[in-house]
Amino acid sequence: MSSTFGHKLKISVFGQSHSPAIGVTIDGLPAGRLLDLEQIQRFMARRAPGKAPYSTARKEADLPEILSGLTADGYTCGAPLCALIRNTDARSKDYSQLQDLPRPSHADFTAFVKYGRYHDIRGGGHFSGRLTAPLCFAGAAAMQFLNAQGIFVGAHIAAVGGIQDSPFDSVRLTQEQLLTPGSKEFPVVDEAAGQAMKERIEEARRNQDSLGGVVECGAAGVPAGLGEPMFDGLENRLAAALFGIPAVRGVEFGAGFAAAAMQGSQHNDPFAIGEEGKIVSLTNNHGGILGGISSGMPILLRCAFKPTPSLSRPQQTVSLSQMENRSLTVEGRHDPCVVPRAVPCVEAVVALVLLDFIVQSV
Amino acid sequence: MSSTFGHKLKISVFGQSHSPAIGVTIDGLPAGRLLDLEQIQRFMARRAPGKAPYSTARKEADLPEILSGLTADGYTCGAPLCALIRNTDARSKDYSQLQDLPRPSHADFTAFVKYGRYHDIRGGGHFSGRLTAPLCFAGAAAMQFLNAQGIFVGAHIAAVGGIQDSPFDSVRLTQEQLLTPGSKEFPVVDEAAGQAMKERIEEARRNQDSLGGVVECGAAGVPAGLGEPMFDGLENRLAAALFGIPAVRGVEFGAGFAAAAMQGSQHNDPFAIGEEGKIVSLTNNHGGILGGISSGMPILLRCAFKPTPSLSRPQQTVSLSQMENRSLTVEGRHDPCVVPRAVPCVEAVVALVLLDFIVQSV
Amino acid sequence: MSSTFGHKLKISVFGQSHSPAIGVTIDGLPAGRLLDLEQIQRFMARRAPGKAPYSTARKEADLPEILSGLTADGYTCGAPLCALIRNTDARSKDYSQLQDLPRPSHADFTAFVKYGRYHDIRGGGHFSGRLTAPLCFAGAAAMQFLNAQGIFVGAHIAAVGGIQDSPFDSVRLTQEQLLTPGSKEFPVVDEAAGQAMKERIEEARRNQDSLGGVVECGAAGVPAGLGEPMFDGLENRLAAALFGIPAVRGVEFGAGFAAAAMQGSQHNDPFAIGEEGKIVSLTNNHGGILGGISSGMPILLRCAFKPTPSLSRPQQTVSLSQMENRSLTVEGRHDPCVVPRAVPCVEAVVALVLLDFIVQSV
Amino acid sequence: MSSTFGHKLKISVFGQSHSPAIGVTIDGLPAGRLLDLEQIQRFMARRAPGKAPYSTARKEADLPEILSGLTADGYTCGAPLCALIRNTDARSKDYSQLQDLPRPSHADFTAFVKYGRYHDIRGGGHFSGRLTAPLCFAGAAAMQFLNAQGIFVGAHIAAVGGIQDSPFDSVRLTQEQLLTPGSKEFPVVDEAAGQAMKERIEEARRNQDSLGGVVECGAAGVPAGLGEPMFDGLENRLAAALFGIPAVRGVEFGAGFAAAAMQGSQHNDPFAIGEEGKIVSLTNNHGGILGGISSGMPILLRCAFKPTPSLSRPQQTVSLSQMENRSLTVEGRHDPCVVPRAVPCVEAVVALVLLDFIVQSV
């Protein structure tokens, strides 16, 4: 049951990096929406590999085929929507030595503990970042339902290799601000920061090294009152799903870890009657969530991504069959930094979780 | 369904700060363990208020009564274990004005949006930190099952008000190191840091202000192979449950957000054959979890807590009935810093989630 | 997780027959309803033992204490509602021999397999019919939410010992017809049939024997459109919960097993425009459910109950410690027929499942 | 979330009768089993249409394509197994009038209530019996895991049109007895009864009518101790899943509804030390389940199926657009009796639920 999340909107992801196909089933989409498939593909293209020097050379058309869930004329019909993506550019020979020599800081070792020699090691199997392609499909579909309700989700690279992007405006977060980074070839707010990040990534590649980073994601237009107290609030479900994206090591909301170093008098967000006569907060350290429940202010969160573990420089590992220390040099195609491609993945997960809450409460 | 978590081990928390009682039902505990009730009470005492200048003056005996789940001679019998704690020192008059004037950065406002005037505002109702008392009961019970399998969970204050404690040893984390902070009146590794933190908290109290902080939690002895890939791994479930503790704003595993600024060559943890002939990693930036699955190395995570929002200095808020701006000065008893009392809460949640995985896989 | 059901409305039952208390937590009740506690007690009295010659002599006041979930003035507040009932008339000595000699057709044996000697055998432990008391509490609370929406649930003894009661009118099922049997001391539609059933039960008691029976339950006013296709329809969830009542051996909807012997031309229910201009069916063999989804017609189902397994005549069993055949004569107080007291239990479960669907779709 | 069931073994069915494909994702299969695909296909062939005069003329090759979940050499790898079946012989024009004229006793009407004009009416959409094809795929895969543990599941037509087959031997139920009916072209125990049933079905077809029936299913080799008390026992989960098969109207275990007319002294199953020194019961009215938990005796259950609602004779219905009474004659291909093809569907569901319990407890 590892690959399923959601309550009324249920997402079930399947596939391995080199299986015949990968895909997703979305159960619980409301009937009656004409899906814009081109928009879905544009969204998925943001995650697709092979675009730039900072991503893997693997090329996948990633054209999803929708198997079910639509009427003959393309509207959601209430039945589960299943989409599959064929794996066409899989070079399985690259991975043979990894069966015995687990990559440091990769799931190779724990998958071996769990599944023994039956783990499908090719391309990382079910643990591959490639599984985020169907996740992006599902997220892009969810986005269309959210947009129709005036809810918009967007993200950008907040940091890579120590270089910071400008943050989103936590109080006045507009649809335009949310969607602009995603419309760029490199999803940042501040172009200069983006240029510096790209150079840092290229430098890491030259050094046979890799970089981590942070993605900031926001959602505007989320109505107040979504979420439940204690264990079923927005943070609980968002965090649980976000940690499903490979390489995420931390999730924080609003001021997050910085809040831990603040005083209450700094951190507290004063309430006020806003311009439209609605209750707003004048600052938004709470990231749009109080007690697990949306406050009506923009939702803001950040995810930390670790550096790609697959390096083409020698690393120390062990031989599982010989139980002795070994050196490993990973062959194959790997992103020196997954963060640019992770941006739409974070958006997708956030959109899916928000839609799950919305279909549950409507 | 807000107050329930767990899969095979199901935790269901009930109660409001000023309802007749609060409590917890634990469904799925294995039969046959003689529960050490004194140990449970010692654990709960670590969370109890009224101990020190840095905590609320509210006094609760917090003696749990076990209603079900044990045999006549005190062994778990396989049926749900329910424990309740009476609310005896509830001063409901303190909270009357909050019905109309929501505290900044508190759940008062979102609870009003969700439940209208029927939200039980007294003491924060179901959103109160007091609900962590039954959580600690459940966690302490879970701990006894874990200890019997050689698994130990402990936490300490990693930071308060900008002062850092020494971290746990991420590679050689012993039972003694884990349990020592919890045995102290102020749960830190480094006494000097603890002394400085206490002074900072006392200073905040004098300034009618509050402080946030960070709790680091570790688990030693967790066998490799617990957890599932993608959405049902250790991080997913741990994070989901940890965000159920009031005031948690961020959760990170291993190197966490620091990993985002590292290079792969720094962050990767080399594998090696350890002293006992088992596979270990020489560093532990992965915090004992790879691909959602335990690696056999110590599990390490940190939670960020925001500063207590209830301040006895004037703050700006709104009148819900008049829809106009107002000033609010919160009366009543509130911790200037919840972090010391949050330490056992984090341990409790981690213990419950780990036991849930263990009963599921045994 | 055995003792929990429901999706958005989550019911968690705890307690053993002879533990200090039994009880229930209901998570997900909408805020804002003034609970009528007297109505709840009247409902629970219908299940209570000791009323008549055909029920066990055990006497329980069964006065529930509400621990949480209400505001100071008795309205539901949105937080989990927990109610407990103290066990006061427990005679544990009656059950000592059963630890070694499992009663035929009782859970004693399977509980031993599962929990070993730690099963709380006293009074049947968690498997006792006594656990239906908190279930009735929860059902009675749910009923008040349903009634406010014009939905009424009622049941009667459809058969005992081969004697049939008149069935409910499947097409024109009124609130009055639903609630009348429950207002009687013996819940039947046809008094003469009831008299004959009572005599048959008394006869069984004299013969140190027991009887099974059938309960028919109906619900009127259920809006069309509740339920989901395939595995999450009304039948799926109703059946799953109804089998949680001890002694239920079969569940059928509408024409049920009789449908298996019918022809389509007999069984099909013609649609027509009804008197109020709404679509109705002229017959109701479908029991108000088509494809798992409510049709707007009355919902009708039947549950088969097996005869009470505890007999005070000698029966053949085995000694678990000696692994040899033995004769067992069960001491203690047992209903010769649980069906009269099962009637409100069936109503309670049906009410809870219907309310779960309703809070999920509103 | 309608189309998903299971706890640790999660089954997610997708597709509509006339969508590009139907299929199933099975999450939670243990790694390391070489799947016998021919055996799966033989099992699926038992459900496939077009074999005989008593089934629909629609022809589907129903060759499943496995998209994921296997290693390169055909072993389960621990990742979700997804299989799809293309819809190739879909004649969508047959169904156009049903958009406005719902078939009596069919889900057309309730699907309209739920999804409006966006319900995919073609072939019954997601409510079609065709969705049992992927269910049979999943069940056949599950069967191989069960068989490897000495557990066998089999079913037969217990009754059609009032004609009864011989029942399974409830006490000595062998693998051979279980599997024999499924190896026949018409799955009965008693050939003569089967011949009479076939004639009755052919007679119904000639009369433009249809028949219901009963399927009995058994499982041998199930270890004692599977299942949980109250709401998570074998009956709860089996019934919930079995009602997911279209046309099921009742589910009973062991003596079932017949138990309701029995006396305790007849119904109780005496325990004894069996030939192999194990505890057995001398009769099996309890159907292998006591208190929700398997007793080690054969598991026995029966499902009632209603007659096919689609008749080619005129029936009364309404026009949804005109809200007036109308006559409807259903065109297209429909089984006069679904029961023969339902036999493997019942086996599949029982196998999946049993395997779910087993992977959860191992």
Attribute tags:
alpha+beta, five-stranded antiparallel β-sheet, 21% strand, 27% helix, 362 residues, homotetramer
Structural account:
The structure is a homotetramer of 362-residue chains. Chain A is α+β, with helices and mostly antiparallel strands and 362 residues long. Chain A is built from eight helices and 16 strands. In chain A, the strands form five sheets. In chain A, strands 1-2-3-5-4 form a five-stranded antiparallel beta sheet, covered by helices on one side. In chain A, strands 7-6-8-14-9 form a five-stranded antiparallel beta sheet. The mean pLDDT of chain A is 93. Chains in contact: A-B, A-C, A-D, B-C, B-D, C-D. The interface between C and D is large, with 103 and 103 residues. Strand 9 of chain C pairs antiparallel with strand 9 of chain D, so a sheet runs across the interface.
What is shown here, in short?
The structure is a homotetramer of 362-residue chains. Chain A has 362 residues and is an alpha+beta fold.
Helix content of chain A: 25-40%
Largest sheet of chain A: 5 strands, antiparallel
Give the strand content of chain A.
15-25%
The largest interface is: C-D, 103 and 103 residues
Principal-axis shape of chain A equals globular
Structural class of chain A: alpha+beta
